[in-house]
């Protein structure tokens, strides 16, 4: 019954706005060549997916996560936007979305820190996996057929 009550309060509108919805609108206003815009979009989408797995980004509205992700992508790729670089890009993005520069900068820095932590964990996992495979003498061939047609029932 609670679900119905919530749905009625929402007037059965279950579509919510997510950070990815803001990407095309923000990217359209940035002075980027089309090929670079696609690259920034892909990186920003990756950052947004990373933010979705970290509870610390719940406090930011989706537009801030999208803007911070674009800023982190541009910063990580080392792009300059028609003479804008570093702080100026953050100010440009804040102007486009009407957000506070300090809040945007904090969000972007958290995104970059989350990426660094994620890469660190992935590297440690890879090292542990390599150590385990070396301890077991590498991969041993199994007796499992590689093709379904090789199975005799």
What does this protein structure show overall?
By secondary structure, the chain is mainly α. The chain has a domain at 22-115: Cyclin-like (Cyclin A, domain 1). It contains 6 helices and no strands. The mean pLDDT is 83.
In short:
With 153 residues, the chain is an all-alpha fold.
Unreliable residue stretches: none
Compute the separation of the termini in Å. 51 Å
Beta-strand proportion = under 5%
Radius of gyration: 22 Å
Structure class: mainly alpha
Mean pLDDT: 83
Net shape: globular
> What is the CATH class designation of one domain?
Mainly Alpha
**Main sheet overview:** none
CATH topology category name of one domain: Cyclin A, domain 1
Q: What's the CATH H-level homologous superfamily of one domain?
A: Cyclin-like
Portion in helices: 55-70%
Main location: cytoplasm
Keywords: Cell cycle, Cell division, Cyclin, Cytoplasm, Nucleus, Phosphoprotein, Ubl conjugation
Subcellular location: Cytoplasm; Nucleus
Family: Belongs to the cyclin family. Cyclin D subfamily.
Pick out its properties:
single chain; 153 residues; mainly alpha; Cyclin_C-dom; nucleus; cell cycle; phosphoprotein; cyclin
Topology:
Blueprint: H1 2-9, H2 23-28, H3 34-52, H4 62-77, H5 87-97, H6 101-135
Helix pairs in contact: 3-4, 4-5, 4-6
């Amino acid at each position: 019954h609670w679900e119905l009550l919530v749905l009625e309060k929402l007037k059965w509108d279950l579509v919510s706005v997510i950070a990815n919805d803001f990407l095309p609108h923000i990217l359209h206003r940035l002075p980027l060549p089309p090929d670079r815009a696609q690259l920034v979009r892909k990186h920003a989408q990756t950052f947004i997916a990373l933010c979705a797995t970290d509870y610390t980004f719940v406090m930011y509205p989706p537009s801030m996560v999208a803007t911070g992700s674009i800023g982190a992508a541009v910063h990580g790729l080392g792009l300059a936007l028609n003479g804008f670089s570093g702080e100026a890009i953050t100010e440009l993005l804040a102007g486009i979305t009407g957000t506070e520069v300090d809040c945007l900068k904090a969000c972007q820095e958290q995104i970059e820190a989350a990426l660094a932590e994620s890469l660190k964990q992935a590297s440690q996992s890879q090292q542990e996996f390599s150590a385990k495979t070396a301890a077991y003498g590498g991969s041993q061939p199994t007796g499992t057929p590689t093709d379904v047609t090789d199975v005799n029932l």
